[in-house]
């Protein structure tokens, strides 16, 4: 083999080595942040891309939505009630460059920001708001976190509070309050029923007053219903007109 052929083979081998050393592939859910001699050069991917060996290096960033769990935090509501809350955050990297350059550890930074924002948000609401209006508070917390993480190239997509614990004394007080409300509602329903029944009785009395014969029919119906019961003693209330007529007839028969 001549020197020319040897150099050709060596050059070809070097070119093949440089080709394979410079070729990189990113998955659809990844982006490669490329630095040239320590300075940001470009963001590549997905698919095939090239980088200069020994002069450029890369860091791959996952741009899929990920979850961050916020450990249980003890905080105080606006009405000075201590509560324990844990939450879950759904976040996604929208700018790989800033997620690497602007913050050292984006996952830990989001978690710490969530802890601070959670305490501040709960402190602006009463216990009733925290228990009854969790969606509104979660939306407020999401907006707060999104404004904090926006310079880092991270989008907070959703925040949900998983569990809310309150003191046992407060739980008992709330149970008593709920029981009192149920009793109040039961009494209101009973009073409304009695009022409706009184209105109906008044209407019936007005109808009977316009037709006295209907009173006798009602009395006979009542006697029939009472007589249908076993082991009952029936007391018949006679109209005063019948009593006066019977007294008159008795006097006439007693006269000589």
Describe the strand arrangement of the main beta sheet, using strand numbers: 3-2-5
Structural class: alpha+beta
- Approximately what portion of the residues adopt beta-strand conformation? 15-25%
Predict the CATH topology of the domain at 66-166.
Tetrahydropterin Synthase, Chain A
CATH architecture term of the domain at 66-166: 2-Layer Sandwich
**Helix segment tally:** 8
CATH-assigned homologous superfamily of the domain at 66-166: Band 7 domain
Give the SSE string: HEEEEEEEHHHHEHHH
Rg over CA atoms: 44 Å
**What is the assembly state of the chains in this entry?**
single chain
| Helix percentage | 40-55%
Task: Describe the protein.
This protein is of the alpha+beta class. Among the domains are: 3-61, no CATH class; 66-166, Tetrahydropterin Synthase, Chain A, CATH 3.30.479.30. Helices cover 54% and strands 25% of the residues. It contains eight helices and eight strands, in the order αβββββββααααβααα. Strands 3-2-5 form a three-stranded antiparallel β-sheet. Strands 6-7-8 form a three-stranded antiparallel β-sheet, with helices on one face. A two-stranded antiparallel ribbon has the order 1-4. A hairpin with a 2-residue loop joins strand 2 and strand 3. Helix 3 crosses helix 5. It is rod-shaped, with a radius of gyration of 44 Å.
């Amino acid at each position: 083999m001549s020197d020319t052929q040897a150099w050709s083979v060596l050059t070809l081998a070097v070119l093949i080595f440089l080709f394979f050393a410079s070729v990189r592939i990113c998955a659809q859910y990844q982006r490669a942040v490329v630095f040239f001699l320590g300075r940001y050069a470009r963001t590549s991917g997905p698919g095939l891309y090239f980088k200069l060996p020994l002069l450029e290096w890369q860091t791959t960033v996952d741009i899929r939505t990920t979850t961050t769990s916020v450990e249980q935090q003890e905080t105080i509501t606006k009405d000075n009630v201590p509560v324990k809350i844990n939450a879950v955050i759904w976040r996604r990297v929208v700018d790989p460059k800033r997620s690497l350059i602007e913050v050292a550890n984006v996952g830990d930074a989001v978690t710490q920001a969530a802890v601070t924002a959670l305490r501040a948000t709960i402190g602006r609401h009463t216990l009733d708001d925290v228990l009854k209006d969790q969606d509104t508070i979660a939306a407020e917390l999401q907006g707060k976190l999104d404004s904090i993480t926006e310079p880092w190239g991270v989008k907070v997509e959703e925040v949900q509070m998983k569990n809310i614990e309150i003191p046992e004394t407060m739980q008992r007080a709330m149970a008593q309050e709920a029981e009192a409300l149920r009793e109040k509602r039961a009494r209101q329903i009973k009073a409304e029923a009695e009022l409706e029944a009184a209105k109906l009785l008044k209407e019936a009395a007005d109808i009977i007053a316009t037709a006295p014969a209907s009173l006798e029919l009602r009395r006979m119906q009542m006697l029939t219903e009472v007589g249908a019961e076993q082991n009952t003693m029936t007391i018949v209330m006679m109209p005063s007109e019948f009593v006066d007529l019977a007294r008159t007839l008795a006097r006439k028969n007693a006269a000589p």
